[in-house]
Amino acid sequence: MIRKAALLTLLTALLASPAGMAGTAVAAPPGRVAAAAPADPLLVSEVTPEVVRTPAAPVTVAGTVSGTPGSSVRVAVRYSRGRPFASRTEMAAYLAEQGYGTTNWSTRIQATPLDQSGKLPFRFTVTPQELGLPRPGVYPFEVEVTDAATGQRLGIERTFLTYAPKGEQIPTVKLAVALPLVDRPHRADDATFMDDDLSGSLASGRLASLLQTAQDTGDGVTWFVDPALLDDVRVLSSGPRSVKGTRKAADPAAGQWLNGLRSALTDKTVVATPYGDPDVAALVHHGLDKQAAASVQRGAALATELLGREIRGTTAWPAGGKIDRDAVDELAMSGVTSVLLSGDALPPRAATQDGQPVLPPAPTTPDAAARLDTVAENPVTALLADPTLSTLLGGDVSAPGTAMLARQRFLAETAMIAFEQQSQRTGQFGQFGQVGQTGQTGQDTTAKTASRTVIAAPESHLWTPDPAFVSGLLQAASAAPWLRMTSLDSVKPGRAGTPRGDLTYTDRDRQAELSRSYLATVRKLERKADAVATVTEEHTDVFHTAILRLASASWRGDGKRAVSFAGQVQKAIDDRIGHVSVLDTPRAVAGSNGQVPVSVANNLDKDIQIKVRVTSASKSRLAIDRPGGVYVTPTTRILAGRSQLVNVPVIVRNEGGDASISVQLLTDADEKYGSAVRVVVRATGYTGIALVIVGAAVVIMLAAVVMRVLRRRSRKAFPFDGPRDEEGPPGDRPGAVPAERTQSP
């Protein structure tokens, strides 16, 4: 049997998609063109109406058979007379050809040759009476094409007929639909776009489809909007931007998209995702709890600002719809009151009796809400999306016919949920799916109990919707007599909810998280960003949102791109840090102790508050004259565009020489600001030599003074006068020598 891979993906969530086998095909040798895939011999393009309301209403079936021109084929329908499905499990088994088959068939087009192009368009009608649909229910319906000559089956399409006759009482099912409006980050730091993909996506790509979907859907949809996407679009539209170093003008189409989205979401329920749609589980598992909490707070505040009305962020939608207890606790402590998860993240707990599991009489769809106890004061509500409905809503419907079949199955699945409720109330579902029976009094025995609630949400936050399919599906759901659309915030746990086990978070789920090594890089950048924010006198979170974007869950499986974004953020942070610097000009100190001047320059446009810590890198020659050899200044204010001189006390050892000191800037909270800077210091013992010289000079001077005193004393005692036996002045005496007259010093 030949089937399209996309069709199988939509028709059953339990059957592995053949698309996975496509990758095993052997490539054609060089120079040869690979053979095209064989055309699907059967395309069913129409089965109307989607819900049959009267026994005599004609059901129109149309499509095309493809094959060898001129070959003859037969087209028939296959069904099970009087036998509706008893459960959704049977429906899945039917699509997967696992134990459930049709028992009746009816040829609708006899042996007919294909035309010259190898095509045979067909259209025929059947009625519920012909198919033997005696009561409300979901019935199997197949269109089969066979070779007229051999009877060999060429192709078959399996789908469902939902029979809901007017006047029949069918329990109501409340349907909540959640749609994500999320994109991967496009900016690294706030000023730098790493690519120009956003413009194309807004104009005619995925984001354009999302806007169209928001405009086409009604009020019953809950939109999860990532404020980081809105922020990127605002920056794109507001002015020139840098795209990998190239300056580009503002994109006016971005502003139109943002205005269109504001208008489309005006009357709709909107929830803000945490900023950047982070991988919360990975953040918590690797010690980045603070960042997870910050993304929740930032998300709600920014969404409120950009959409112009109050947007709450109290409901979180984790990546992949899976989460563990640690992450739930962190979200609860951050103000989150509910989490949207995949239905299999919190599976129903099997009933037990005397310690032994007791199988239920028939598998049924559990209600969509449950309570989760957390470390916070109040429990968190787990909102559980139905896996099958979510696959149908968010699947690829680009192949011909798949949108119609997906919509038909979606209605059938929800109808089956309603019939499950009816069977539980009457106790008469049994093997043949008898529903809507009355008791002996002639009154309907269905008890009035709370309606079952189901949730449908695409499995991937980065889904690419087909606006026509989504709007058509929601319109069909709104018109279904058993469905009532509701908003996600109205879904609450019932008093008698389905007992559930604990959260399932497997090793595979952990392996899908952002890697340990990558988050270690994010943690280092976060510390640097905190230092940048706190060094200014008025704290400014310059890189706060850039760090949050690095934790986006969209980087799962895209490590190369994530690393490039982190590299750009690091470059921007280092450049900012470099605006506050220590001048590494060599310094000199003379003597056995003294002060070394260190200059710190602030080239930012804001005043800073900073400390300077100095240690010696050459302790044998130069020591810091403080206990422990560490000198730390008090917090010092440095004005914008100014420098500050700091004198560091030092001691010169072993006659000095060239030494170096390590200068580390610190924030007011003693966090490192940038890397340490080494400053060369030329230290000498000049003070000791000077003392020796001065001492020697003093000794010489003292010796000179002593010699002069001795000379004076010796002059007083010198015999200048001659013999006194002659009269007259000494100078007139015979033999007298005149005294040399000198000026006293």
> How many angstroms separate the termini?
133 Å
**What is the name of the CATH topology of the largest domain?**
7-stranded beta/alpha barrel
Q: What does the radius of gyration come to?
A: 44 Å
Oligomer: single chain
- Indicate the proportion of strand residues: 15-25%
Query: Which stretches are poorly predicted, pLDDT < 50 over at least 5 residues?
Result: 1-37, 428-447, 720-745
Number of folding domains?
Answer: 4
What's the CATH H-level homologous superfamily of the largest domain? Glycoside hydrolase 38, N terminal domain
Q: In terms of structural class, how would the helical and strand content be classed?
A: alpha/beta
Question: TL;DR?
Answer:
This protein has 745 residues and is of the alpha/beta class. Helices cover 30% and strands 25% of the residues. It is built from 18 helices and 32 strands.
Helices and strands, with pairings:
Blueprint: H1 5-11, E1 42-48, E2 51-52, E3 59-66, E4 72-79, H2 88-95, E5 104-113, E6 119-126, H3 128-131, E7 137-147, E8 153-163, E9 173-181, E10 192-193, H4 197-204, H5 206-216, E11 221-225, H6 227-238, E12 241-243, E13 246-248, H7 252-264, E14 269-272, H8 280-285, H9 289-307, E15 315-316, H10 325-333, E16 338-342, E17 351-353, E18 356-358, E19 369-372, E20 380-385, H11 387-394, H12 402-426, E21 452-456, H13 467-479, E22 483-486, H14 507-511, H15 516-535, H16 544-550, H17 559-577, E23 580-582, E24 587-590, E25 593-602, E26 608-616, E27 622-624, E28 630-632, E29 636-638, E30 643-652, E31 657-666, E32 677-684, H18 686-716
Parallel strand pairs: 2-8, 9-11, 9-21, 9-22, 10-12, 11-14, 15-16, 16-20, 24-32
Antiparallel strand pairs: 1-3, 3-6, 4-5, 4-7, 7-8, 12-13, 17-18, 19-20, 23-25, 25-30, 26-28, 26-29, 26-31, 27-30, 31-32
